[in-house]
Amino acid sequence: MRRESIAPRADWRASVERIGFDFHTIDGQAYWREDACYVFDEHQIDVLERATGELHALCLEAVDRVVRGGRYADLGLDEHAASLIERSWRDREPSLYGRMDLSFDGRHAPKLLEYNADTPTSLFEASVVQWYWLEEVAGDADQFNSIHEKLIDRWASFGRDRRIHFAACYDNMEDGVTTDYLLDTCVQAGLDVQPLDIEEIGWSGKAFIDLADRPIERLFKLYPWEWLLSEAFSAHIADASTRWLEPAWKMVLSNKAILPLLWEWFPDHPNLLPASRSRADIRGAAVSKPYWGREGQGIAILGEREAGEDKPLHVYQALAPLPVFDGRHALVGSWIVGDEPAGIGIREDGDPITRNTSCFVPHLFR
Questions:
Q1: What is the largest CA-CA distance in the chain?
Q2: Chain segment 51-90, per-residue pLDDT in tens
Q3: 3-class DSSP state of 66
Q4: What's the burial of 206, exposed, middle or buried (CB within 10 Å: 0-12/13-18/19+)?
Q5: Which letter, b or e, does each residue of 147-172 get, where b requires 16 or more Cβ atoms within 10 Å of its Cβ?
């Protein structure tokens, strides 16, 4: 694994805008960068694919153990959340996708930093934008990227006899692009679709409805479950016939408090890091993480001798520093579609914590 400096396409902005990627620049700074790329060999890609598949299997086992053992308090979840999780898990409600954030330097085993299992973004750039870049710039190389095809196949597995509604906060450009991209893959799978802003969902007294008063039978929502449950209408979720993507059982995995439970149940697994709800349990440097939060919110790195009082609703994970190439800290986002590893995207930053402004850089392998 290495970072190579390359010449960007002369018309790269126009090229990515032609395929619908309009947030390539954030606050005047390039978010999409193609003046560099990350290069892997085939063995390293195989390592990432195997680790992603194995970690996903461990996570599903962890959900089952949480449900069977009632370990909801360890996740900061109340009875309402627990009842929704149990119903969705026992009904085997299907999931669509997720993204595991991994620390990987190409030499040592990938380490799971967290599982973005509910509302992961950076999907369009991982699936489509970097693939078009590869075809134009390095057509003789390959890319770990079957995300688009797997999404279409996954939608088709849900059956073509029903409408799927898509909801997001469309005033957030990244969320809107991600949701519209997923809607497009659903259309390509032959399903009927209807987009909605999350605020346009209504309640009829019997069912959640859209603006045409049609019942919402299945809803993809790019809106975190913890936000959803804080809404007044969340009291109706248990009584409604609506089935959700992602399903309620994903609340277990999108919660960083799953990390100590994974370490408890699968100690010393080569792809896991020591984690606890107490800083005192982690030797050496650690990372403090809130149970909930997107794009690096609330994350802090604690030095080897830095302790302090444990924060409520925080976990502590042994530090696995991101590899640094040319002064840039590189994070591997490894995608799951259904239950299958589907590809990777690389985010990088001059800071060791990856945030929503961290750059996306394409990859290839030979």
A1: 59
A2: 999 999 999 999 999 999 999 999 999 999 999 999 999 9
A3: helix
A4: exposed
A5: bbebbbebbeebeeeeebbbbbebee
Residue 160 carries which DSSP code?
A: S
Cα dihedral value 355, 279, 116, 246, nearest 10? -130
- CA separation for the pair 267, 258 (Å, rounded): 13
**Cα separation, 363 vs 133, whole angstroms:** 9
- SS3 category, 72: coil
Q: Look at residues 260, 231, 271 and name the one whose alpha carbon lies nearest to residue 111.
A: 271
Tokens of 103: 């620390």
pLDDT digits (tens, 9 = 90+) for 5-22: 999 999 999 999 999 999
DSSP string, 97-133: EEEEEEE--SSSPPEEEEEE-SS---HHIIIIIHHHH
- Give the model's pLDDT for residue 160: 79
Confidence of residue 162 (pLDDT cuts 50, 70, 90): confident
Q: What is the pLDDT of residues 254-274, one digit of tens each?
A: 999 999 999 999 999 999 999
Q: How far apart are CA 76 and CA 280, in angstroms?
A: 20
Burial class of residue 247 in the structure, from the number of CB atoms within 10 Å of its CB (0-12 exposed, 13-18 middle, 19+ buried): buried
CB-count burial class (<10 Å; 0-12, 13-18, 19+) for 328? buried
Domain ranges for the chain: 2-256+321-365
Closest CA to 340 of 182, 157, 161: 157
Assign 3-class secondary structure to 234-293: HHHCCCCCCEEECCCCHHHHCCCCHHHHHHHHCCCCCCCCCEECCHHHCCCCEEEEECCC
pLDDT band at residue 27, thresholds of 50, 70 and 90? confident
Cα torsion through 87, 93, 96, 101, rounded to 10: 40
Q: pTM for this one?
A: 0.96
Task: Give dist(CA 113, CA 299) in Å, integer.
Answer: 12
